[in-house]
Amino acid sequence: MTIFDENLILETINMIKLHNFDIRTVTLAISLRDCLSEDINIVCDKIKYKLDRYAKNLVKYANDIENDYSIPIVNKRIAVTPISLVGEACKNKDYVKIAKTLDECAKNLGIDFIGGFSALVEKGFTCGDEALINSIPEALAATERLCSSVNVGSSKAGINMDAVLKMADIIKKSAELTADRDGLGAAKLVVFCNSVGDNPFMAGAFCGYGEPECALNIGVSGPGVVRAAIEDLDKNADLGVLASKIKQTAYKITGTGELIGRKMAQKLNIPFGIVDLSLAPTPAIGDSVAQIFQAMGLEHAGAHGTTAALAMLNDAVKKGGIMASSYVGGLSGAFIPVSEDAGMIEAASKGYLTFDKLEAMTCVCSVGLDMIAIPGDTPTTTIAGMIADEAAIGMINKKTTAVRIIPAPNKTVGDKVIFGGLLGEAPVMAINKLSSKNFVTRGGKIPAPIHSLNN
Q1: DSSP H helical segments within 269-335, as ranges?
Q2: Distance CA 124, CA 142 (A)
Q3: Do residues 274 and 329 make contact, with C-beta atoms less than 8 angstroms apart?
Q4: 81 and 31 Cβ atoms separated by less than 8 Å
């Protein structure tokens, strides 16, 4: 006879009902490498067939499992092969047409977001890369569910500063073309250093070159659960005890995520990929990474000690999660997006959290400068400097870093951008006014660090 642990059952119920625990995303990674053709119409037809073949039951099965286990699955997503590769053989490189095809497929399948309108240019551009990058602003303005990413650097290759400057211009144009939506296009575009091909989170998800034909990757979320676990501890508990509690909580969250992922993969008859351990916040009250810092003892996010608290949180989440699953991947850590975290929004609005403090925090967390609104008149060269700084952090520290900046059209410091849903809202933050122009316009590449020569 099975012995049920009543306390464990109640704890799981509380995680879901009281502390916003959920499966943030089930992301189906689908290779489109067999969709190449010289004819753009054939490419689009092949994409439609391939996505329908693998993803037609994704939403249905996710809803079934959500009902079976009473665990919310917030987003159903698709990530595809970087589209710069898929469209490169076309005589007519109409990447906007491919973008609209992907968006139409996502809509018909009931998918929340589709990622992979991407290019990897850390060492230079191909003709397909250039064509795709130039099409990004129009593609994002003309679609609803499409997300885009470009990798401009790596610890092995260095930083392609020509790509950095180009992407700064693309970010500005993407925001301007969606000015009626507070620059939403830029919120669906991320610039990476050391991007990964099994990331289930948007806007940066794509199906990497070394990935299988199809796989299911899971992103879990549990900032509210971690915060509640810390608050349950004795107020005088030392930091070692605190770290152990975070590890224990991450273990439970990860195990639940893998269970759901394996059930989904089994239903879809495809391989299970990875669990991403990232703590992904939302604008909902109680589902905030920033509020974890307060539970740890800081007055608010942005106080001196915030970077140290984030480093400990990130490390403990990884240590706990890795014990629960042998298939950990993606980004894995703690996200600190401003617009998507209620506590971060409050801290930024009150001036507790500055742009420079956010940059410092990215040295020890997942990803980087994420969902930060800046004045719409910010020079392109200043944005390029932001990208270069963040890419340098990633390159030197052999970690994934990224920039998702929204130069809010016609807005300045103190104004607000509002996107709604998981993208939330954010105050327009003050930035350094000093010029980066003469540095970022030199072009060329920042060479890879000495530790890249480790073969």
Answers
A1: 289-296, 306-324
A2: 27
A3: yes
A4: yes
Please, which residues bridge with residue 136 across strands?
Answer: none
pLDDT tens, residue by residue, 58-101: 999 999 998 888 888 889 999 999 999 999 999 999 999 999 99
Distance (Å, rounded) from C-alpha 181 to C-alpha 185?
8
Q: What would the DSSP string read from start to end of 218-260?
A: EEEE-HHHHHHHHHTS-TT--HHHHHHHHHHHHHHHHHHHHHH
Asked whether the domain spanning 218-449 has the same topology as the one spanning 28-193, the reply is yes
CATH code, residues 28-193:
3.20.70.20
Fold of 218-449: Anaerobic Ribonucleotide-triphosphate Reductase Large Chain (3.20.70)
CA distances from 224 to 19, 57, 207, 229 (A): 5, 30, 30, 9
Domain range summary for the chain, segments of one domain joined by +: 28-193, 218-449
In this prediction the pTM is: 0.92
Q: Are 151 and 402 in contact (CB under 8 A)?
A: no
> Is residue 276 classed as helix, strand or coil in its secondary structure?
strand
Q: Around Cβ 405, how many Cβ atoms within 10 Å? A: 29
Residue range 16-42, pLDDT digits in tens: 655 567 788 899 999 999 999 999 999
In whole angstroms, what is the distance from residue 430 CA to residue 351 CA? Answer: 9
Instruction: Inform me whether the pLDDT recorded for 7 exceeds 70.
Output: no
